């Protein structure tokens, strides 16, 4: 990890470490700067090696550590350095005139009186020295430490260590030989127990919603105060306090009537025992100003939300088909009003998941709904009321719907589009309704009739509808009469369905 610009890039325990300058150039510059004495060493020239000179390594190490100690003591500042103290686990090392007296030199001879001499090629230290004094691996940067104690022989002496502030944030681990203290501003950390309590509360709010209290005077007072905090400036506390029906349902009805049910209010009420919810006024797009409106749908998909809700109205607001995915798991939803919401056939298929509880459905004034939505509507087998007014469903779709309803013996009140209603009211202009023998009323009997009998039946229907042609070959008349009788039969079922 690179050190900050203000910290020296020199390692006191690894004097040959230099990230940017070669070792020879660095030592040469250091010798020139300190004006160190030289000890000429002459070597015979072998294979191109020239005679050179080098300086005493003991003097270099001593001068190097003295210079480094002075630099650290002068350049350290509270902004860039963090003071930490550590008690050594074994004998402290010697400090002489502000610099570290290393227990070894480059040539391998020991500078400590307590340690026996070591071979020149071995760099490993004795176990008598602290672990912090063991030199780092080759080409590895280590931390610089200086003793603050004048008595280096006491076991209880503490060592003052300067570490860059950036390292305090990353090098504090259980495996590090030295534990670094956190900055002062982070000293007052929250205890683990408090963190667990906060976590449990957050999970409870996620699963069961925020506590709103019972429907008692005190519980309602707390709820009203909380709602007034979320909707300031409209005197909501006074207005809710004047309600005659002071209950969760009464408060919800008042907020829904005045268009105040935003996502935050809904999140608070989602675990209450409200049964009716009107969101039309709250989700209405007031010239694009209702920015928070669409976030309301996501509240329905949260765990344990609106478990008692049986009536939901979204009339008059813009609803995307996929928004209804969030209401798929309402366990008791019986009535759903989606009139004038702009939904299409996909929305009808999405709400199939509510077929076990849904009994009332209104998708009126949605022209994007056409005959392709009939199979989905048929799967809602518990419907007792269905409104498809002002949709694109025509008589072909109604005939299919009426056929299944009649076959399964359902009783359902259906509000049909105006064009279909006009057609049913004028069935007497389409064909002969009251058929008497010898005329037939079942399409399956047409194959048994002669050509003359087929013509007589077609003439009877042509008296009601002049567009019916009562001529042609026997096959043509048979096909024409079968089509008229099949349509007549299905239209009668549609009339019975809407008249039930």
- Placed side by side, the strands forming the largest sheet appear as 8-9-10-11-12-13
CATH level 4 superfamily of the largest domain = Ribonuclease Inhibitor
| N-to-C series of helices and strands | HEEHEEEEEHHHHHHEHHEEHEHEHEHHH
Mind telling me which CATH architecture of the largest domain this is?
Answer: Alpha-Beta Horseshoe
> What's the CATH class of the largest domain, please?
Alpha Beta
Low-confidence regions: 38-55, 75-116, 118-181
Q: Could you estimate the helical fraction of the residues in percent? A: 25-40%
Shape: elongated
Topology:
Elements (H helix, E strand, L loop, with lengths): L22 H12 L3 E2 L14 E2 L1 H19 L5 E6 L8 E2 L2 E2 L45 E2 L11 E6 H4 L23 H17 L8 H14 L5 H6 L6 H10 L5 H7 L6 E3 L1 H4 L12 H5 L10 E3 L21 E3 L7 H6 L9 E3 L11 H6 L5 E3 L7 H14 L4 E3 L2 H8 L25 H12 L11 H26 L1
Parallel strand pairs: 8-9, 9-10, 10-11, 11-12, 12-13
Antiparallel strand pairs: 1-2, 3-7, 4-5, 6-7
Word description of this protein:
Helix content is 34%, strand content 8%. The chain is of the alpha/beta class. It folds into three domains: 23-186, no CATH class; 210-426, Alpha-Beta Horseshoe (Leucine-rich repeat, LRR (right-handed beta-alpha superhelix)), CATH 3.80.10.10; 428-499, no CATH class. It has a six-stranded parallel sheet. Strands 3-7-6 form a three-stranded antiparallel sheet. It has a two-stranded antiparallel ribbon with strand order 1-2. β4 (95-96) and β5 (99-100) form a beta hairpin. The longest helix is centred in the C-terminal third of the chain and has 26 residues, at 474-499. Residues 38-55, 75-116 and 118-181 have low confidence and may be disordered. InterPro entries: LRR_dom_sf (IPR032675).
């Amino acid at each position: 990890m690179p050190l900050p610009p203000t910290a020296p890039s020199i390692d006191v325990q690894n004097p040959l470490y230099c990230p940017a300058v070669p070792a020879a150039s660095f030592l040469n510059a250091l010798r020139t700067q300190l004006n160190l004495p030289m000890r000429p060493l002459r070597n015979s020239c072998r294979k191109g090696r020239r005679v050179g000179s080098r300086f005493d390594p003991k003097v270099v190490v001593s001068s190097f550590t003295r210079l480094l100690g002075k630099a650290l003591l002068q350049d350290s500042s509270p902004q860039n350095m963090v003071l930490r103290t550590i008690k050594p686990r074994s004998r402290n090392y010697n400090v002489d005139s502000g610099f570290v007296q290393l227990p070894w030199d480059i040539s391998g001879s020991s500078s400590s009186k307590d340690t026996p001499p070591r071979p020149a090629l071995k760099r490993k230290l004795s176990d008598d020295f602290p672990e912090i004094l063991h030199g780092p691996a080759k080409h590895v940067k280590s931390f610089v430490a200086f003793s603050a104690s004048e008595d280096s022989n006491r076991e209880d002496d503490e060592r003052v260590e300067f570490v860059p502030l950036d390292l305090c944030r990353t090098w504090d681990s259980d495996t590090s030989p030295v534990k670094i203290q956190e900055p002062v501003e982070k000293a007052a950390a929250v205890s683990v127990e408090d963190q667990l309590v906060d976590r449990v509360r957050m999970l409870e709010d996620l699963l069961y919603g925020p506590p709103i209290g019972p429907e008692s005077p005190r519980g309602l007072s707390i709820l009203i105060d909380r709602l007034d905090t979320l909707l300031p400036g409209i005197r909501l506390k006074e207005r809710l306090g004047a309600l005659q029906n002071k209950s969760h349902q009464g408060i919800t009805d008042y907020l829904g009537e005045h268009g105040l049910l935003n996502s935050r209010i809904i999140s608070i009420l989602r675990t209450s025992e409200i049964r009716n919810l009107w969101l039309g006024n709250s989700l209405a797009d007031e010239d694009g100003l209702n920015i928070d409106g669409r976030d309301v749908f996501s509240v329905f998909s949260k765990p344990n939300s609106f478990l008692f809700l049986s009536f939901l109205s979204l009339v008059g607001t813009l609803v995307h088909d996929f928004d209804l995915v969030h209401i798929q798991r309402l366990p008791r939803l019986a009535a759903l009003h989606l009139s004038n919401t702009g939904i299409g056939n996909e929305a009808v298929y999405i709400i199939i998941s509510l077929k076990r509880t849904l009994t009332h459905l209104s998708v009126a004034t949605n022209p994007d709904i056409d005959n392709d939505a009939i199979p989905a509507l048929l799967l809602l087998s518990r419907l007792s009321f269905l409104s498809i007014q002002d949709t694109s469903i025509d008589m072909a779709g109604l005939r299919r719907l009426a056929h299944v309803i009649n076959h399964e013996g359902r009783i359902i009140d259906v509000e049909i589009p105006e064009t279909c209603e006009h057609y049913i009211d004028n069935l007497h202009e389409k064909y002969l309704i009251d058929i008497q023998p010898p005329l037939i009323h079942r399409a399956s009997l047409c194959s048994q009739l002669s050509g003359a009998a087929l013509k007589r039946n077609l003439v009877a229907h042509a008296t009601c509808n002049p567009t019916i042609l009562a001529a042609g070959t026997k096959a043509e008349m048979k096909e024409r009469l079968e089509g008229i009788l099949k349509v007549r039969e299905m239209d009668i079922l549609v009339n019975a369905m809407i008249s039930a």
